[in-house]
Fold this protein.
Amino acid sequence: MAEKLIEVKSLRKYFRVGHSQVLHAVEDVSFTIEKGKTLGMVGESGCGKTTVGRTLLRLYDADGGQALFDGEDVHRIPRNRQKGLSRRMQMVFQDPYASLDPRKTVGAIVGEGLKIHRLCKTKAEYDAKVFELLEMVGLNREHASRFPHEFSGGQRQRVGIARALSVGPEFIVCDEAISALDVSIQAQVINLLMRLQKQLGLTYLFIAHDLSMVRHVADDVAVMYLGTLVETAPADTLFEHPMHPYTVGLLAAAPEPDPDYEQGRKANLLTGEVPSAINPKPGCRFCPRCPYATDECRAAMPPLAEVELGHRVACYHPVGQPSPVAG
Amino acid sequence: MAQRILEVNNLEYSFDTYAGQVQAVRRVTFHVNAGETLAIVGKSGCGKTVSVQAILKLLPEPPGRMVGGSIRYLGEEISQYNPKKMSRLRGKEMSIIFQDPMTSLNPTMRIGKQIIEGIRKHERISRREGRARAVEMLGKVGIPSPERNMNRYPHQFSGGMRQRVMIAMALACKPRILFADEPTTALDVTTQAQILELMHELKQELNASVVIITHDLSVVARVSQRIAVMYAGKIVETGDVRDIFYNPRHPYTWGLLQSVPHREGDRRQELTAIPGTPPDLFHPPAGCGFAFRCRYCMGACTQAEPPQTDLGNGHLVSCWLLDERAPKTETPQLAQRKGVREHG
């Protein structure tokens, strides 16, 4: 059994919005990530993927549950040891335009972590480290003295990755790290992330809404819907044998780059829209859009139950059969 | 032979800036047949949006300037139309929906009023008739309780619903051509599927043509009959959707197709990325725009523009590799066609 690096247990995060209104952004989410693996997290916008990632790094305080990093609860660690923790967990943000300080040079952005954590003793060592980081992500050392606006989206995302890597983390949350980029640039950044994972033994939480990319990079996939985790499984199992009606609908909605396949198949659409997560009703969150919903579903939220090894589904009426070869 | 309702010939469009002239669209030729969906594919900055906005005269001039070429709609040259004549065409004969429905709707106006305004601009009908039409359109695009939603403001809708409002507005006067500039890029996959389906249904109903601009090849595979691949202000390859996906001949098209992961592709393998960045359009290269990033680049590529080769069935490719003097190259391994399969 591989070592668990991340273990999330019944994590909750609520936001107060206005009078007596509570947005249940993350509700009872549990999952684990093994060392050196990638967990892909998918779902529509507003389903709480980003909030999970941020709460995991303690950018938000949790309202319940635990997020264990290497056996320690991220939210219970005293503030004075917080810094040591943030060295080990880093984040790559979605928007490469908004996440880099426009008044700092790229060198200063990448080197900021080195200074904060006092990782370099001399100026020469610091410079060498910054250059090394830039070269690691495919930029040149000349780029260190330039400003973010001089770079294209793909290059900026590389700067964001270099910044995350600067402090030598073990775990990186990639929050829609490629969504804002062009297709061919996406491929470059994905290749970079995967190469770095191999080189440095990194563990990723890869948050995205692009299913084909998630399938490409992830070992395991977790599907979220409106703050709840509806299904998790190894990537191949999930894409070949989805069991939650929402996962089925989500996969059917994603087009494939193949005209014969696309134009030959029937549109199998999820109807309606994602309802609001403010003061939600009890029961399964997917009920209003689910073709199989019954009174049982409306009464109580179905628990995330293991249907086969590593494949968990939160549904009273899962679709299809578990895959013939378990695991 | 299908009727060509729009013909664009050698369109050249530039922007005059302080730094010099940006040649955004460089001699682009394409046509739109009646009732078909044409997809213009390419990455950001390749000139696909500028081409379409130049046709509709939506770009501020100056700095924009049409340098040359012709645009014919139903056989009539429209590139020299004055603003008044153009505005009679826009919205009535051709309309456009944009990527970001939040910024393209007026935030201070109820959506009903915005739709009615559009209709009454082109048709002499009473306010009441206009209102009835608007309600009908909103119902058609799947907005629940259209009567009530007429009185709401754009910010009260979700992204998908706003895009539906945009479509209702664009189609209210039954245009012959609908231009859709990245219509689903800002939306989730499930909403994207709904919007694409809606556009398809309405297109059938109105027998309109659609020109969709996108960088998402999966969307292209789903909706289009023909494709034009653009790179650095030029169309490098155009043809039937099946020819482009299963028998592409331009190295840039190969690169595009290889950079998306396939359903049955090898997982966790390196994706084929195209190295480098596109050329500077202030000083476009003399030869092929893609030459500097092309694995197959030869001497001729950097010196002279490649001629267009006709491979039949409207499949046109501009690449020196198709010249008879060029060395033979193997088409790289692209994903195999999988054909129609049972789904779900």
